[in-house]
Every structure is written in structure tokens, then in C-alpha cells.
Fold these 4 entries.
Entry 1:
Amino acid sequence: MSGVLNDCDTILQAAPVRFVDPYAALLAALAELTSDDLLSPSEKPAENIRWTAILGERAGIDASAAALGITTERTAYTNAYNTLNGYIVGGLGAAFTTIPGSAVPIVGATYRTNFTNYFSAKQTLLNAITAASAMRAAYSSVTGKPDVYRIVTSGGANTASLISPQGLYVNGTHSMGVRRSYVLAVIRRSDHAIVHLQNYDVYGNGADSAGRNAATLAGDLNNFANSPGQYIVVVYSGDEPYNLRLTGGLDSALYRNGASRAVFGSPQFQYRATYALIGISGCGEGNGAEAYQGAVVEDPNSWIDVTFQLYQGQILGVTSNYKPKTLQDFSYTGDMNATSGAPAGTNVAGVPAETVVAKANNALPAAPTFAINFNGDGDIYGAANSTLSAGFSVNPAGYTGSYSVDWSIRVTSGRATQGPYLIVTGNSASVTATSNTGVVRFVVTAVVTHSGGLTASAGGSSSLNFGSA
């Protein structure tokens, strides 16, 4: 009918209907998920859990490695962690930790490589920790090992850097510190028990040691000397050992236990020098090992670092020994010229004194000269979890006659699982240590003493490098 609106016309004239693809969002999410260079919101929760676990485990792993002295693997692990941390925190930032957030642009290859390198370095370090722990446990279960004693001390004016705290160490454990004048440590040879450990303020006549002075120390030394051969007697100084040391019978008591007039009783013994004695109870004068440093009053280089081992009551490998060098050490105060004061033309057994002097001077042995040869140029390299040795020898030259050699070692850095041990055989010596990884650096010194009393010394540094074969 004309002019009448038909219902069908109304429907046909309405706005067109839009077609919405129900799969578009799904396809976009799938594209994010499958893209190698996008970290999708659905992937981020698992990745954040993995990253949080890494943050939580790192401190414990690093502390375990440090406690066992592991260096190479620990450094590689730290570097891998730092690279990954820089990539996640510094590169991806808050977008990585915001969940669900939006997709995070990444470089897939770099992302995977950083995580892979971390987990690889972590596993290598865990393997090293396991091996080192097993080695330490195995060594701790070994019976009959030698006990290692170390004495580190200095004079009051010393400026050299030493380990802290100073004093007496037994198998690496600090047992007694340094006090003014002297400390006496007595070790029973039958079971290595320390039966006496006390300090004596000889300088202050007992002011800093509850009245224990030179006479008190002398009395204690004599008591142990009355049981000859039963004890190891260790005496070491601190700060100032010079004043009043020859009073109260202290010198005689020390001589009974191995000290000597040429060292402890020497007029060359200086104010604020450093002294140590390792002797056997009642062994007699001069039969102990003495260490001394102090060339002048308040010598800034007055310090000693002495190590010895005790195995079944026997002293092994004392690493320092002082020998008297001049007649002044024996308290000689006369002229060094045997014909001093004789008038011209004086004969000695019918020979002119001038001739005697000339022949005597020509007969004096020259000061020993020698060199220490280091195997492997001084630095030894070997596999991790191994035992390494560095060998040394002395080649005296330029004189004739008999001589003796005293060897010493001073560790300057690093730590081994076992050792380092100094093994001496006459002109030769070796330093041996066992460890997992790392570097042990040390200084070896040899002192040659000629039968005529002249001495010469030489030394050098070396290192044992574990895990650097």
C-alpha cells in the first residue's frame, strides 16, 4: 500500500552488522608465545620463579666456595651471574618482573645463552665444592698426621705486614697471642698435648703478667728441663724482649732447654728485637732451633714467622734458624787484629808479625756465594685436586771447606688443603702442598754457614698453582 512502511524495509535499512573474528586475540597471543624475540605474559611467571631461585641460592654457593678456598670456579660463577644479572635487571628491567604485564622484547639467543652460562658455571662450582669437601673430610679422617705449629710475632717497632692475630697457631688454629716480653708453650711429646701456655712480662718485671717476671719464667723452664726429653719447649717474644732478659737466671734456664749464648745471650741482641726458641726439655745449650731478627735498636723489620711439625713426638722441618755471624755474638770485645799493639819487628814463633798477619788474611775463607735454582722458573702448575711440589737447591761456590744449610719458608698468600710442607735434604729442599684449586705463594730462603763462621743467604719467591695445568 502506497505510503505505508513495510517491516521488511525497516530491517533492511538498519546499520550494517560488523564481523568480529573470534580467533584474532588467540592468534596474537600465540604469535607472542612462539616468537623467539618476545617473552610473553604467559611465559613470565615461570621465568620469574627461575630468576628468584637464582637470587636466593647465590649467596650460599659463593660462601661455601670461599670457605673451601676455591678460586677459579668461583670467579667463573660470579662472572656468569653478573652477566645474567646485568641482562635481567639492567636490560629487561621492571617489564620482566611485572606479571602479567605485556610482552617483553628480548634477543632469544642472548637470553638463552646467559641462563645457560650461569647454570653451567654453577654446576662446575658445585662439583668443585663437592670434591673439596670430600678431600677435606678424607684428610680429617686420617689418623697419625703431623701437627703443625706456627709462630708469628714481631718487635714493637716492626712495620712489616704480618698475619693477624700474631702468636702461636696449632694446625691453623690461633692458640695464644703475643704479649710483652715472652710466651712459654710446652708440648708433651707423648701425645702432643700443650701442658703449659703462659706469658711473662720480663721487661716490666711482671707488671703486665700478674707478677710473672724473668725469675718466674726461669723457674718454669727449669722445672721442665728437670724432665729431659719429655717436652717440646717453645719460647717466643713480643714487643720488647731485651730488657732484663739476662736476670733472674732466665738465660741459664733457656740454655738448659736449647738456647745459646751466641744468640739469646749475644751483646748484639737489640732493644725491641724478635726471638723464638724451639727446643727439647733439658737438651742443653745450643741444641735448639733459634730464630732472631733485629739488626738495630727498634728495627722496623724485626719479625719472625717460624713453622715446625711434630710427628710422634719428633720435631720435623723447622723453617727458621739463626746462626751467630761475628765474634761480637760471643761477647768478644777485643781488637780484631791479632797482633794489635805489638811493636814493629815483633816475631811470632820466629816469624815477623807482619808476615803472620798477611798469611792469616790470605787464609781467611771468602764469604760463601751461591744461587738458589728454582724448578719451573719458580712457579709450578698442576691439575686441580692434586699434590704439587717445588724443588730448590743450593750451589755454593768460591770457597772450600764444610758448611751447613738452613732452609726457611714463609707463605705470603693463598691456602692449601694440606701444607705447604718444607722437606729438607742437605743442599736440597722441596715445598709440597695438596689443594683443589687456587694459588699458594711463598718465599724460600737458604742460609749457608761456613765452618769458619761466615754466612751468606739467598732466596726467592715461588708459587704452586692448582687447577692451571
Note: The first strand starts at residue 38 and ends at 39.
Entry 2:
Amino acid sequence: MQIIFVHNSIIGTVLSDNSLPYFSNNPYFCRRNKTDRYEPFINRILEDMGNHYGTVVVPARPRHPRDKSGVEGSVRLVYMRVFAELRNEMFRSLEELNAAAADKMRKHNQKRMQKNPYTREERFLAVDRPNLKSLPPPY
């Protein structure tokens, strides 16, 4: 969810993986209050976050990896192309690690994709960026 603050904007729909705490150290922060096969619920805090930012929060169903397969594939690709390349380097601080990861991520986003004639960055600027909404002022 940190991407929201990097670009100072938000997308219209957020798919929530209920196993990760996004805005708190509490591991139960984004979990459902009640599990239902057909009508999943999200807790009040995550719903308030969606209302504040003007976005829809859709909870992923438990034990349904197809709901988040696109995200999982992207995470795998970034891990292979960014963090796997940094595994043999030594960093003295978190800032050094973050700078190296950001540089590798920038190079990854500017590399042409195999099946498409454009880069990820070009696609983001042409398709995704125009559809982002600016963030509202804080509470």
C-alpha cells in the first residue's frame, strides 16, 4: 500500500489480501470481521480507509489463489529481477538497500517486455496514470 504515497494518488479499486497488515503492527488490522462464501466482509478500519481515499476495497476470498494470481505473479517477477540480483551484495544501512532496490526496480520498469513492444513504465504512463485519483487531504 506504500505505492499510494509514492505517486500521491490512488486507483479506483484495491484488492485486499487479508493476511497482511497494511497500516498497523496489529496482524488483525485488515482481516474480515466475518467469513462468508458469497458476501465477504472487511473490517471497519479498512472500510474507513477506502471511504477516506474514495476507493473500493475488495477483499480476496480465503483459499482462492485465483483472486490474486496477477499480483502474486508480479511479486514473483519483481523478486527474481530485483531482490535476487541484490542477494550477493552487502549493505551497511537500510537506506543503501532501499536505494539499490529502487535502482533495480527503475531498470526493471524501463526494460522492454518480451511479448509487448513497450516497457512497464510506458504502459503505466499511458494507461494507468490518467486513471489515478489524487489523494484527499489527511484527516
Note: Helices lie at 3-6, 44-53, 69-83, 94-109, 120-128.
Entry 3:
Amino acid sequence: MKLIFRFLRMLLFLTLLLLVYTMGRAQEVEAENSINDSLSVIQTADSANTEESIGVNSQYSDENMIEDVVPRTPVLNQNYPNPFNPSTDITFSLISQEQVSLSVFNLLGQNVRMLVEEVMGEGFHKVHWDGRDDLGRRVPGGIYFCRIKAGNWSATRKMVALE
């Protein structure tokens, strides 16, 4: 009987371990998909130096280097690092020029910090948050939300601040 309980306990432990691994992998896949959705297919030049382009706004220099890549969909990426202490970077992409509002909220839904309130162009953007509120005070450790609004599109990501 004890052997059966040990076996069941071991089976439960392995199941939980597999579940944790699977959830972690699912978050990695979600991040990869987010990045892949942000980037268009990068084209190559054939032997005659003709370009094949799918969703890419590009200009080639003499060395066939891509100068400008436009994302296909707007994306708010997960902040990095997360969890963070004392600061973090927030990256996002826009498909067209839009009025952008990027804010940080606490669990109560209170606006902690307005990071961006301006018109921004298409492409990839990075905003640094120093972990301070609008009054310049360092925020306590906890869960915060980063919310972006650009035109009719909006997205939210959870961030964790460590003390």
C-alpha cells in the first residue's frame, strides 16, 4: 500500500513538473510569436539583384542592407527585464503614425506614470521606465500593468517590480 502511495506521489510530482515546464514553454512560444508577428518577411535579392518583398518597406544600399522594416501588426511586447528592479524597458511596434498613450497602472487601476503621450511614427519603439511614479517617487514592489493606446488599438501587459 505504501508503495502505491509513493508511486502516486511521484506521478503527481512529475505531472506538476511537466505542467510547469509546459506553461513556461507556452510563454516562450507566445513571445516568439509576438516577435514574429511584429516582423515582416525579410527578403533576399536573387542573382539578378531583383527584390521580392512581402510586407516590407525596404531600401537597399549597395550592400543589399535593409534600412527600414515596417511591422505588419501593432504589438506591445513584454517588458524586459520582468520582474525588474529598479527599471525596465518596454518595446512596441506601430504599423502607422498614431497618437500614442503609454501608461503604467497599479492593481487598483490608478495611473502610476504616463510614459508617452505623443504622436509616434510607424516601426519599432523602446521606452525606458525608471520605476518611478509621476511625482518622481520609486514605486513599491508589486504588480503593475503597462497599457498602450494607439488609434483604435490597445494592449496591456503585466509587469512585476521587485523591492
Note: Confidence is low (pLDDT under 50) at residues 36-67.
Entry 4:
Amino acid sequence: MTPTCASRRVRVPMHKIAVVATLVLATGAVGSTHTGASSTPAASCLPSWRLVKTPRVGIGEFTAAAATSPKDAWVVGDSFGGDFALIEHWNGSGWNVAWNPDFALGGLKDVAATSATDAWAVGGGDSTSLVGHWDGRRWTRVPIQGAKTPLYGVTALSAHDVWAVGDGVIMHWDGARWKRVASPRDATLNDVAAISSSDVWAVGTQNDGLFTMHWDGHRWHSFPGPNVGDQTSWLTGVAVVSTNNVWAVGESQSGLSIRGPVVYHWNGRHWKAAEEPSGGPINGIMARSATDIWAVAWDDPLLGGGGTTIDRWNGKSWHVGVNVRFRYLAAIASDKRPNGLWAVGSTGDPNGYLPRVKPLVQRYGC
């Protein structure tokens, strides 16, 4: 995820969502498979959401997106229940499949980029961590010591300052190697976002409750809670606008089937429950400013819900921008244009009641 005013992807816990996909192989670098985009937008128009064609890769799901410019964006995902990586690149006119044999085993959960020659993707399997780096020519798997579980979130401040989080683990890249940083081993961290090298947030769950951590430049501080009663709850995404303006989102569950959204706001001193958008559990959040925050949520239609919603916070309240049944969106990110966004996921139902048809990319703008 990008370091300033954005939080891309978010991961829904693995026991809640089954991910399946098939990857079309392309060697080495980006560019072996290409799909064109729609015609050039008009000079003046009302922004809207539209589907963008991607290369045919069979059944699958995208889980995260990141962009450094309107002509440089990445989406990642996984296939065959998370066993294989799925990576595609946007060059300004179309999406291309990117793949490296080193990524054959292990799905990808998140991606972050600082430039056209510096991007990171993380994921893994049940007992392995997967970290890949893009150097402007190809993706390479990077050895990582001290992490034997999947990594779910990554954020990059620079080429020598990158954070990754997962099941009971926080890792830091200093430009030369990955190093494990002390963290609670019983906490699952699903997302991480940063605004500076001394202001980093990670969110997830601990003991079936909400859990957040903050890096102040010297060490991580834990913030158990906030408390949402006797419900099982977890945080899936975090967006940092400023030191005194941080948003954390996720879901709560009471019983076996009643699931709802969770939204909390950090004002510089403490976390406080905030207004929740209509719809179901929130999968992803990103922020461009205090009055321009976006979230994607899923309210299962087969359980009486309305499907996917894309919601926007204008500084005062949430407004539903899109409501689509049986299109599952996992993450949302800026495409670096004014008012431009990427939203990624899959067609079908994430709980497995309906087959996932193919990875899905939607774009917002003119």
C-alpha cells in the first residue's frame, strides 16, 4: 500500500474466505499478455465506475492493488485456494500478466509500490511466507528469515523502509534484508499503513477482538480493543490520513451468520467508534484526504444482503456509490489520477456458495 493517505488492501481472514484461481504463465518480465483498455475519456465528464478488461487467467481473485502513477499499477491475488500467485501490471493502456517461476507456490495477499522500479508483494501458504520484489525488470522472490506463516499486509515508505505483517509476525526491510521485530505472537495482523518512518499502524485481531499496533520510530505499542462487546471481531484494513486521523475497518460476528461492519477512528489520543456505512463487513479502505475516504464491503446476497457496496466518506457521513450483487471486491486503491480509483476482487461469491468466475478490476474516473 502507498505510504501517504491511502490504505489499500485489506485481507479478510483465511478461515472466512476461500480463494480459488488459475494463472496463465508468462515468463520473466511484464508484457507477455496484453489487454487493451477502453477509449480515451472525454475532457469533462462525471466520474463513474466501469469494468476494465484483464488477461484471461481462468478462475481466480485479485486481493490487492497499488499504483505509483496513472501508467504504473499492480494487482495481485492467488489461485487454487491460495497455492499460486497471480500478478498483473497496468501500463496506462492495458493489463499484462507478470509471473516468475519462484512464485509458483504461494498466493499473494498485498502489494505496495514506491516507484516504477520498486514494488513489493507478500503472501504465502499455511506454513510459509512469500515475499517478492519488482526491480523494474522482473519479480524476484526475496528470502525472509523469521517468518513461517503467511504475510497479509505490506506498506513501503521507500526502497529501504518497508513493513510487512501477518500471523503473529511483523517484518521490516532496511534496504538489505528482512528483520523480524518483536510483536505479540497471538495476534493476527491483517493490514499495515504508514505516513512516515515514525508513524506506522498495523491492525488485526487478538483473542477474537479488535487489535491495533503503532510504531513510533523506536518500538511497537499495542492497543488491545476497542471493545465491541461479546462479538467476535477483527480489523481488515487501515488508512492513515495524518498523525491525528487514522481509520480502521473490519467486521464483527455474533453467532454463526450475523455479520456487520466495524469502523473506528484514531484522533491522536484514542480510538473511538465511528459511523458505519450501510452494508456488510468491510474488506478494504483507502484515504486521499480527510474528506475523501473510500471503502469496499460485502453483504452476502445468499444470506439476505445486498452484495458489494463501494462507500465514500465526505468528512461528515458515508454515502453508497455502487451496489452490485455477486461482484466481490476485496480492495480499493488510488490510481493517482484526480478522483481516480482501482477496485479489485472477483465475480461470484467469496464464501463459496457460487463459483468464482474470474478476477475482477473496476476503475473509477472519467
Note: The longest strand covers residues 232-242.
